[in-house]
Design brief:
835 residues; alpha+beta; TIM Barrel; 5 domains; 6-stranded antiparallel sheet; disordered C terminus; binds beta-D-mannopyranose
């Protein structure tokens, strides 16, 4: 018989077993969705509020301290030959019982579990129970058993194989939820494909695919064969009665290679593997089929030392890729809700922001296949952390065995995705060992070195040799010659995380770094106004009102926001202005950082900004907030991540223009340089011929008469090459003579909504339409636009609301930096160019 899958999705209930609970919860069977969690079930049943609102986080803390039981009944009409109950994911420590028989005790959210239920199942109705332990108590108990290991945040998440951020993070709600977070099903089968692991690479123009196929059999009575179809060709291999494991090698001549976006098409091939019963040649039967899309590419991480130190350069198909990436966290604190549409929207936003890489951060999860499928299709590279973050981890059992099992399963599942180019041992654990004082607190205990330097690289080499491996992020490669135990965050070597700038300094201090590769750096801002006011009902709403504080998790977050704002803008005492100022400052920080890092090419080969997304409505470093709305930072990314970019940067003796050309065409022409005053008058100008080859960069010194201001507070530099423009302001916003914005606006209807044309009479900096204030579902195609007097721009607004000019151009909605600059506040002594 052909494998039959039946989802066990219906009829689930949830029962509180133990722990303190509000009145009305004990003894009540609550209908529960599977996949799902306790929090989402209780909310759907009307028992609790939405946990993301106001201070529901602490009001619902009892949930994570309780024990719970999921239960359902399902029917079976047949009990064989093979009969399995499969859980794609249980969160986390559980006892699974079928008709009273214990099937197992899972304890790892990052694994799937398969139980042979032939002995426990019966014809007709079957009772399935999943008891879930309190993760808060389990983590505490296990931490004592394994021995204390240092970690960030209050709970010892490092003692349990559960999504670390489920216990809260510096952007994350502490839910400590439990549940059955991925689908459950019954599988009936005779023989099945238990694993299909593609290893695809390229030699010359030849695609080489090795398909590692494992089969499981309910009995040994049958002769089996596999057939593999790719690119219109079918290959068959015999397994006979005894072989359960086979490698089918396929050569694809003139292969179409998979390229990341900006370098070519992300060509994909459909691969179909069929398991066939060939016992009776006259009537062969297909027993199981697996369809997958794969791609052919090579990956190499170049860490060959050079005169600047040790690079960290990602090469795909032999070509150096300038990485413009973002870090990815679980898109929802209840990750079962992140279905294909959510991934598609978010990855669409990543594309909008000009990104070509997403790094799946180690305090989250291995995402579902949809994520990697979409990245494959859209040519977005993926760096996937193994699931370790900001902590020391015991290398003893039971953690040791769980880690190996989960890593093997994840690498096997993900191996076929061409987008996955780097598997990475952990987030910040190598660096943290010294940086955060782990060594002395460990007092000789294991901390995870064996995972990062031994187990995980061995697993990658064995199961996915076509994927790169790094032991950690940040990471100093051994080729640096700095020995076995370097500090791992040295800007001259490998990848680094730049966090001192946000935590202790000003964003202009990004310019003190000339990194080889920046795998994290970021700046905070509140979410979009509509998101914020949906989640926080404080009256008055202020940066430090009760709900706001619950939705700001960073250590001293508000102080850092203020400290980071003041060098550039004054602190507004109006909430709406505060919100805009902080969003603008975040965007300015990120465009400053990336503009500078990119201008350091080829020494710096990439940036991965922290962070693309959020898991709930919160003030954080994200470009897209927890309701999926873009913050201005998303537009800053789009601008500064252009394939062809002009940016003006300070140089030791003045200013220079960096011209970056990440395309296959030359970019030659006249670079027009002007110094203007805020009224638009040209004070000095020059044209310099530039010739920038494909995939290269050129830096041009800006002549002194243009790069030196006579009145810094009212002058700027404009550089333009073929219409691609860069601006340089000699003074900070707050020290400048930026007058209130004067403009003429017009609105017209277009099929998707409106076009708003704004014509500037004065200099307008960072014109941004906060569309969510008038249409929470609206979207604008651009933001942060600076207009010189007389210039105009047209914004395309996607909206189905009735909106008019007055609404769209009201000062609270149509924002500019001008609004934040008191026109009398001129302090020319504050220099922009730092010594
Ligand atoms: C790094 C990340 C995350 C964290 C971020 C912001 O440590 O790896 O753990 O959320 O910085 O603090």
């Amino acid at each position: 018989m052909r494998l039959r899958r039946t989802d066990v999705r219906d009829g689930w209930t949830l029962l509180h077993l133990e722990g303190t609970a509000p009145v009305g919860v004990g003894g009540v069977r609550v209908p529960a969705e599977v996949p799902g969690t306790v929090h989402t079930a209780l909310h759907a049943a009307g028992i609790t509020e939405d946990p993301y609102l106001d201070d529901q986080e602490s009001a619902q803390a009892w949930i994570g301290r309780s024990r719970w039981r999921y239960r359902t009944d399902f029917d079976l009409d047949d009990l064989g030959p093979g009969l399995d109950l499969v859980f794609d994911g249980i969160d986390t420590v559980a006892t699974v019982r079928l008709n009273g028989h214990e099937l197992g005790r899972p304890e790892n959210m990052h694994r799937s579990y398969r139980y042979d239920i032939r002995a426990a199942a019966r014809r007709g109705s079957n009772a399935l129970e999943v008891d879930l332990e309190s993760p808060v108590r389990e983590a505490d108990r296990r931490s004592l058993e394994l021995g204390y290991r240092p970690h960030v945040n209050p709970h010892p998440f490092n003692a349990l194989r559960k999504m670390a951020s489920s216990f809260g993070w510096d952007w994350g709600i502490d839910t400590a939820s439990v549940g059955i977070w991925r689908p459950v099903r019954v599988e009936r089968w005779t023989a099945r494909l238990s694993d299909v692991r593609p290893v695809a690479t390229v030699e010359g123009s030849l695609g080489l695919l090795a398909l590692h196929i494992d089969v499981a059999r309910a009995d040994r009575d049958r002769r089996l064969a596999v057939s593999v179809t790719i690119g219109g060709r079918t290959i068959r291999a015999d397994l006979g009665r005894d072989t359960d494991r086979i490698v089918v090698d396929v050569e694809v001549p003139d292969v179409r290679m998979w390229w990341p976006r900006g370098h070519g098409d992300p060509a994909l091939y459909d691969v179909t593997v069929a398991l066939i019963d060939v016992s009776d040649p006259a009537s062969e039967t297909v027993l199981d089929v697996r369809d997958q899309r794969i791609g052919f590419r090579t990956v190499h991480l170049d860490t060959t030392p050079d005169e600047h130190g040790t690079p960290f350069t990602v090469q795909v198909n032999g070509r150096r890729i300038e990485v413009r990436g973002a870090n990815w966290i679980p898109d929802d604190a209840f990750p079962h809700r992140v279905i294909r549409d959510r991934y598609a929207a978010r990855i669409g936003q990543a594309k909008f922001a000009g990104l070509n890489l997403l790094r799946v951060w180690g305090g989250g999860i291995y995402e579902s296949d949809d994520f990697y499928d979409l990245c494959d299709e859209r040519g977005i590279l993926v760096m996937q952390d193994f699931l370790f973050a900001c902590a020391a981890y015991a290398e003893e059992e039971p953690l040791r065995g769980e880690v190996e099992a989960e890593a093997r399963e994840a690498v096997t599942r993900l191996a076929g995705h061409p987008s996955l180019v780097i598997l990475n041992g952990n987030n910040e654990n190598l660096w943290g060992l010294h940086e955060w004082g782990y060594v002395s607190r460990l007092d000789g205990a294991t901390w995870g070195a064996w995972y990062y330097h031994d187990l995980l690289p061995r697993i990658v080499e064995e199961l996915a040799p076509h994927i790169g491996y790094t032991p950690g992020s940040p990471f100093t490669p051994a080729s640096s010659g700095l020995g076995d135990d370097p500090d791992h965050n040295d800007p001259r070597h490998g990848s680094i995380h730049i966090w001192d700038v946000w935590n202790e300094k000003d964003y202009l201090d990004y310019l003190d770094y000339t990194p080889r590769f920046v795998a994290e750096f970021g700046w905070q801002a509140p979410p979009a106004w509509a998101t914020l006011t949906r989640a926080v009902s404080d009256d008055p709403l202020t940066p430090e009102s009760p709900g706001m504080v619950v939705h700001q998790k960073a250590i001293n977050g508000n102080d850092k926001l203020t400290d980071g704002l003041l060098p550039h803008l004054r602190l507004p005492n109006d909430m709406s202005d505060w919100h805009w100022a902080m969003q603008l400052n975040q965007a300015a920080a990120i465009r400053t950082g990336i503009g500078w890092f990119r201008s350091r090419a080829p020494i710096c080969s990439g940036t991965i900004v922290w962070q693309l997304n959020d898991c709930w409505p919160v003030t954080s470093w994200s470009a897209v907030d927890g309701d999926g709305r873009a913050k201005p930072m998303l537009y800053a990314l789009r601008h500064v991540n252009r394939e062809q970019l002009v940016t003006i940067q300070p140089a030791p003796d003045g200013l220079e223009a960096a011209i970056l050309n990440d395309t296959d065409q030359r970019w030659d022409g006249e670079l027009l340089l002007e110094r203007r005053d805020y009224e638009g008058a040209i004070l000095a100008e020059a044209a310099i011929a530039v010739a920038v080859g494909p995939r290269s960069a050129q830096r041009v010194r800006i002549p002194d008469e243009i790069g030196t201001a006579s009145s810094p507070e009212r002058e700027l530099v404009v550089a333009a090459l073929h219409g691609v423009r860069a601006l340089w302001f000699f003074a900070e916003y707050r020290d400048s003579a930026l007058a209130s914005a004067s403009f003429r606006a017009e609105v017209s209807r277009i099929p998707e909504g409106y076009e708003l044309t704004v014509q500037a009479r004065t200099l307008i900096r960072d014109l941004t339409l906060l569309i969510d204030k008038v249409d929470p579902a609206g979207f604008v195609d651009d933001a942060l636009i600076t207009l010189l007097p007389g210039e105009q721009t047209t914004l395309r607004i996607h909206s189905t609301e009735e909106l008019d000019l007055e609404t769209l151009s009201s000062p609270d909605v149509l924002r500019s930096a001008n609004q934040l600059v008191p026109s009398v506040q001129v302090m020319p002594e504050r220099p922009h160019v730092r010594a």
